[in-house]
Amino acid sequence: MEKIILSLLLLFPLPLAADGLPDLGDVSQTSISPQMERQIGEQSMLQIRASERYLDDPELSDYLNRLGQRLVASSSEPGQAFEFFVIDDSTVNAFALPGGFIGVNTGLLLLAQSESELASVLSHEISHVTQHHLARMVSGRKYDSLAALATVAVAILAARSNPDALQAGIVGAQGGVLQRQLDFTREHEKEADRIGMGILQRSGLDPHAMATFFERLQTATRLIEGNAPSYLRTHPLTNERIADVGNRAQQIPFKLVADSLDFQLMRARVIAAQKTPQDAVGFFEAALGENKFGNPLAQRYGLVLALLRARNIARAASELDTLKRLAPPNPTLAALDGNIRQQTGKGSEILEFYRAALKQYPRHRALVFDYVNVLLSRQRHDEALQILDREVALDGNNARLYELQARAYSALGRRQEAHHVLAYHEILHGNLRGAIEQLELAKRTGNDYYQLSTIETELKQYREILEAQRKRR
User: By Cβ atoms counted within 10 A, which residue in 49, 212, 393, 472 is the most buried?
Assistant: First the structure.
């Protein structure tokens, strides 16, 4: 628990401005260290995780992070910490936050027609981080504040669901800053293109896909975001950029790179979630019908998901049986199998099923979460806590883990620990007041000296942060 506490305390190491980000004031003379970039990114992620647009889907998140880490391993900074996440937004966009946080819209997942095309976007964003473009933009220049720059992606996200917030919050406070940086940003884009193509090639993916995707993205941007202010186009595409990428690709021998099944499954997963259940069933039936299109395994996976949403459990189970006969072993399909087993009453052997699946795929989060939920439903709380403690030690920034821990602690009557981990859950959703409330409840509901000491330390720091925010308003 100590390791987790320390990592969470580090989320707020700097004085905070009213917008919840580190208040660095005039940063024209400030050297932005990698540690500071990470802190700014952490602060921005608190806001993003609190947004309803943040898509907490362990299947999509696991896939994106597997692909992303494959690319990071071929970058100039393979030791840099990265986190890839999904935004539930049909517009075509991706963005990098300071410190290695990279967001991808569901719209971009659907626009990419190959895994290499998706990877070309990720490698571009990775290059923004490894080249420390944020620090280079700030160095030697005078800006209103680094906080405004660091929250651009968060502001764009909010503006898409609330246009009024755009006019009130971005144009006045940040529009001028971004406009002054526009030319410099284009230089960053060209550099990220060049370095990203190298990452693609070293990762065994197709570097030609970057030019192909940029051409498709340019067309989609004209159709989808043609009326957006130019400074909100976080990656302005120009004919010069597309030509430059195309020329570079021509110098690289072409090699056919097949998509992974996971890429196709994730695209089907997004389609199944975005359409109504009935429309999704119709879409995938057509894909598997006489005029077949797409990957048949992925289309049948999408059909099973759509049938589950339509509450047609019996047919979903039948279609999954067909899929299991046709598809190679896969953790995403194993997680779907477990989900259907729970809903079809095959519960007698469900624990054995999850134990075997996790032995084969120990780090697949969808399986972990489902197994823990099964354990909790069967009052096997101590077993659930053993798994959750291990997972939290590996990923202390996953809010769902703390929520599950709280359920287990509450069921065991360990109220102090339940409130304590709920404070972490609130912190990771950007709710500082809620975290303080949970810590105050934890202080009143237990007498463990070690925990009380930790709670007192956290309460003191969180109250100081809250008071600093109040004074700056």
Answer: 212
